[in-house]
Design brief:
The protein is mainly α and 100 residues long. It is built from 6 helices and no strands. The protein has helices spanning 16-25, 30-37, 41-48, 55-64, 69-72, 74-77.
């Protein structure tokens, strides 16, 4: 079996509509949350709708609805990275030959 065949499916967080419903249950609006954070309503909406990533806003949204950010935004915190990380120069085992 190929290692890729054993990988689990990416985690999925809460649906944006469910996040909105939880905010509404608590009498909160995106605007009020944005004001508390000192940002406009746009980035709060973009994070809730999963169009933008901001750890600060995701943490605030999760706290506002009484949940952990890894539950609300699991796809960002619990899924494997979508791309590999780069290595700093000098981390390579291979060397580049000097010009003659």
């Amino acid at each position: 079996m190929h290692p890729a065949d054993t990988q689990t499916e990416p985690q999925k967080g809460m649906h944006p509509a469910d996040i909105q419903a939880e905010l509404k249950k608590r009498g909160l609006t995106q605007k009020a949350l944005a004001e508390k954070l000192g940002v406009s309503e746009f980035p709060v909406s973009a994070v809730i709708n999963k169009k933008h990533v901001s750890d600060r806003i995701m943490t605030a949204v999760a706290e506002a609805i009484g949940r952990d950010k890894t539950e609300v935004f699991a796809e960002y915190y619990l899924s494997p990275p979508k791309r590999s990380t780069s290595h700093a120069i000098g981390d390579c085992e291979e060397t580049i030959p000097a010009a003659a």
